[in-house]
Amino acid sequence: MRRNDLAQYDELADHWWRHDGEFAALHWLAAARSERIPPAPHPDALLVDLACGGGLMGPHVDRLGYRHVGVDIVRSGLEIARQHGVVPVLGSVLAVPLADGCADVVVAGEILEHVEDHVGVLAECTRLLKPGGTLVIDALAAGRLSVLINVHLLERVPGGPPRGLHDPALFVDRKRLLEAADSLGLDLELVGLRPSMREAIAWKFGRRTTVRMKPIRSTAVVFAGYGRKR
């Protein structure tokens, strides 16, 4: 398979909810996202989860009290997400089939590095958000250090991404992303992320089922973005 081939998600569908499977680190990132999402402000509050995959945000969104709509282009992931309380919507993150201003929160986790048009995804996030709504993203940064770690190193260790899942040519230019956010009316702050080394070692030896993602200053490898629509 070529890098960033969607067919991999069908082949790995049974790994979505395995804490020791190929998508283990996505569970860690889902938990980190949830820490930056406020509790639902009212009973009908809506969270739109772009590229929801197998619905790993499901338990976190349920705890926070939102209605949870997940958008993805891969049917197998959406069927699994449905089993975890997500209302599935088949569609592209570049043309989401939902109304303007429908969402109190938009989450776009681990998707920007899988599309060519990062700004287009950010524009869709902005369109979907209500004024004052919350945006939470995370992605892989463009740059030699990021490629070295995320591709050449982590694709070879347990808990890292499956081989070939990422195309380094699509990794995200952070400066361009921030400039686009400002022009779209988003106040966006970027923060670096890394797993707790102690917990990652414990996870590797089967002593933990999850690992905390810790905020760091450097956004050069993995970063999160937290923002609001003006």
Description:
The protein contains eight helices and eight strands. With 230 residues, the protein is α/β, with parallel strands linked by helices. Strands 3-2-1-4-5-8-6-7 form an eight-stranded mixed beta sheet, with helices on both faces. The longest helix is centred in the N-terminal third of the chain and has 11 residues. The radius of gyration is 16 Å and the shape is globular. It starts with 6 loop residues before the first helix and ends with a strand.
Tally of helical segments = 8
Silhouette: globular
Low-confidence stretches: none
Main-sheet strand order equals 3-2-1-4-5-8-6-7
Q: Tell me the structural class.
A: alpha/beta
Overall helicity: 25-40%
Helices, strands, pairings?
Blueprint: H1 7-11, H2 24-34, E1 46-50, H3 58-64, E2 67-72, H4 75-82, E3 87-90, E4 103-109, H5 118-128, E5 129-140, H6 144-153, H7 174-184, E6 186-195, H8 197-204, E7 213-216, E8 222-229
Parallel strand pairs: 1-2, 1-4, 2-3, 4-5
Antiparallel strand pairs: 5-8, 6-7, 6-8
Helix pairs in contact: 5-7
